[in-house]
Specification:
By secondary structure, the chain is of the alpha+beta class. It has 14 helices and 22 strands. A hairpin with a 2-residue loop joins strand 20 and strand 21.
Length: 465
């Protein structure tokens, strides 16, 4: 039984009236709903999950539970995500070729959906202020097979110093009081208070102030939270409209059970009914609030000046491939069908500290904390080239022949980090590995049938099922 704070129940009885009992009952008596999205960037393949209960309003999304040791997850074919949290990225309606920022991106649910909409054309900057969470963000985007993402670990204010009036669309899934996640994460109840709600509101304004600097004139801002609090929802949207003259745009969702925002909970602006709310008692998922706003076409917000700091001159850390290095890499790539993103790899790739990568962006990124720029082909070592795990995830976007299908015991052993023996000797060198016809890694097959393990140590499953 979830024990809700008295201050919380009193607040929502006042705001919701009779519907408050529905909210409290749903938070106490209903199990959190679990769902997943299927990766449209990957080659069409069958998955083992039931697809009988779609999440209405979201492309390729279904109710069901995903395990981190399943081939569907390991191969990047699915992403486990709370169903209501799928809507901000869907509402963004990103088009290929656009420049998109996911400002509070970790762990990556919205970023993977935005990247899927871009389909490798355009730019996704996925940022999070937490260094530990940004590492998880990187893993999820790599698994998803994203080729055009710049992953950064910066504060919004510092990021704004590099991307003034730059992005076509910005998604801000803001840190919040988390009221909408109480039944999924009961620990969130323990740190809730009305003072904490107001602290979150202040932090949200700081984040959004930086976002307004980075959005181009006429660009769109998608603002979302997982809280019910009007202070963090309608009142924040009102503040954006009043302070920056943003227009609150309508949101159209077909076959979706959601409620309109409430002008009475803010400044009576009727346009607040264009925002949407998801309540747990509506049976879609957990609590969520989403607003879609547009920056005035004539508005150019000048970025805040940063304090100048003396910096030592840095030697150029990136360079193009030499002819000799191209000759090392080409034989490794030759057995595979390359997706269009790799069609000009020999001329477009850069090298940094022996890492070969295809950059998503080469300007405006000096002195940023970057975890990944574009995608990594692999690592140059002495007289050889070792392909990256990210390359395996990208190659699975198109049909491949250099693939070895493993059985269940060998799949589990490989994820555990073991070398396999007695494998097919017909394919030599680096090969793609699959289980249930889902590509999940590179291996290196030797002439005597030993399959060397190239599954990243940080992803290995230490305990086999």
């Amino acid at each position: 039984m979830l024990k809700l704070p008295n201050e919380f129940t009193a607040k929502y009885r006042k705001l919701l009236g009779p519907k408050a009992d529905q909210l409290f009952a749903a938070m106490n008596d209903k199990e959190p709903k679990k769902a997943f999205r299927i990766n449209a960037l990957k080659q069409k393949q069958d998955i083992g999950y039931a697809l009988s209960k779609p999440v209405l309003g979201i492309n390729n999304a279904y109710y069901g539970q995903v395990s981190g040791s399943d081939p569907e997850w390991v191969s990047g074919m699915v992403y486990s995500q709370e169903p209501a949290a799928m809507f901000p990225a869907q509402i963004a309606q990103v088009k290929p070729g656009e420049k998109v920022l996911d400002l509070c991106a970790a762990p990556g649910g919205k970023s993977t959906a935005l990247a899927e909409q871009l389909r490798g054309d355009g730019l996704l900057v996925a940022n999070d202020i937490s260094s530990s969470r940004t590492k998880v963000l990187r893993e999820n985007l790599e698994r998803w097979g994203v080729t055009n993402a710049l992953i950064t670990n910066e504060s919004p204010a510092r990021l704004a110093q590099h991307f003034n009036n730059f992005f076509d669309k910005i998604v801000v899934d803001a840190p919040c009081s988390g009221e909408g996640m109480f039944r999924k994460n009961p620990d969130a109840v323990s740190y809730w208070s009305q003072d904490y709600v107001l602290t979150c509101q202040s932090r949200q304004k700081e984040i959004l102030a930086a976002a307004t600097e980075m959005l181009r004139p006429g660009g769109e801002l998608i603002y979302s939270t997982c809280t019910f609090a009007p202070e963090e929802d309608e009142q924040i949207v009102s503040w954006l409209a009043q302070t920056y003259n943003f227009e609150i745009l309508p949101i159209t969702l077909s076959n979706t059970n959601c409620a309109a925002g409430n002008p009475d909970w803010a400044d009576q602006n009727p346009a607040l009914t264009n925002t949407v709310r998801f309540w747990p008692f509506d049976e879609l998922g957990e609590g969520q609030f989403v607003a879609r706003l547009q920056k005035p076409a004539s508005s150019v917000i000048t970025k805040a000046k940063s304090q100048r700091q003396k910096r030592k001159r840095e030697k150029a850390s990136t360079r193009h491939l030499t002819n000799q290095e191209v000759e090392l890499i080409a034989p490794v790539l030759k057995p595979f069908n390359l997706p269009s993103a790799l069609s000009e790899w020999s001329t477009r790739c850069l090298v940094s500290h022996d890492h070969v990568f295809l950059p998503a962006l080469t300007t405006n990124i000096a002195h940023l904390k970057i975890l990944n720029n574009g995608f990594e082909l692999g690592l140059l070592k002495k007289n050889r080239f070792e392909p990256s795990h990210q390359l395996a995830m990208v190659l699975s976007q198109v049909e491949q022949k250099q693939v070895l299908e493993l059985n269940q015991p060998d799949f589990a052993a490989f994820l555990h980090g073991e070398t396999l023996r007695g494998q097919d000797k017909k394919m030599q060198g680096f090969i793609l590995l699959s289980y249930q016809h889902l590509i999940f890694s590179f291996g290196k097959n030797t002439r005597d049938g030993v399959l060397k393990n190239f599954y990243p140590k940080g992803l290995r499953i230490l305990k086999k099922d």
